[in-house]
Design a protein that fits this description.
21% of the residues lie in helices and 43% in strands. It is an alpha+beta fold and 165 residues long. The chain has one domain: Clam (outer membrane lipoprotein receptor (LolB), chain A). The radius of gyration is 18 Å and the shape is globular.
């Protein structure tokens, strides 16, 4: 019985430790603003990614207050769920499943529909339906997403720590 208990505890530690030790090749400091019906945040953070896996770690006054990890599932402090369920519950059921992932990575959303090139290399998307009114701008140092119909704003600005030194 004791051997079974030790084996069970060891397996549990291995599973928990394996889930928390993700290494990302890119880690960038940002000023992050997220306003949605279930998420409200405006301060500094890090966006880390490796391939399709992405993590946003959010800080307030230098203390980590939230972490959003998107890989096979989306995990936040409230727990983990499928990416589809997260986007439906935290953003809008009208959005494609990969919307938040693409915003955090600074990639076009909604398969790039209605994209126009702007001066200086920026891109803008306007997506209007019966249930969405989205403007999405990508620039070299900023990502801006606003859906007036659903009251959602996500703004990510590069925090160039070399400029402040």
């Amino acid at each position: 019985m004791q051997k079974f208990f030790i084996l069970w505890v060891s397996l549990l530690i291995l599973l928990i430790g394996g889930c928390t030790s993700k290494h990302y090749s890119v880690s960038e400091p940002k000023i992050i603003t997220i306003k949605s019906p279930k998420l409200k945040f405006a301060d500094t953070g890090y966006i880390r990614h490796e391939g399709e896996a992405v993590e946003a770690e959010l800080f307030t006054a230098g203390v980590a207050v939230e972490k959003i990890t998107i890989d096979d599932k989306v995990c936040v402090s409230a727990g983990c769920m499928s990416e589809e369920a997260f986007v439906r519950d935290y953003l809008s059921p009208e959005y494609p499943t990969d919307t938040l992932r693409r915003i955090l990575l600074g990639e076009p959303i909604f398969e790039g529909i209605n994209t126009s090139e702007q001066c200086g290399g920026g891109r803008t998307q306007y997506i209007r339906t019966d249930k969405t009114d989205i403007v999405y701008r990508l620039k070299n140092d900023m990502t801006y997403f606003k859906d007036r119909s659903n009251g959602i704003i996500i703004k990510i600005i590069d925090l160039d720590i070399n400029q402040s030194l």
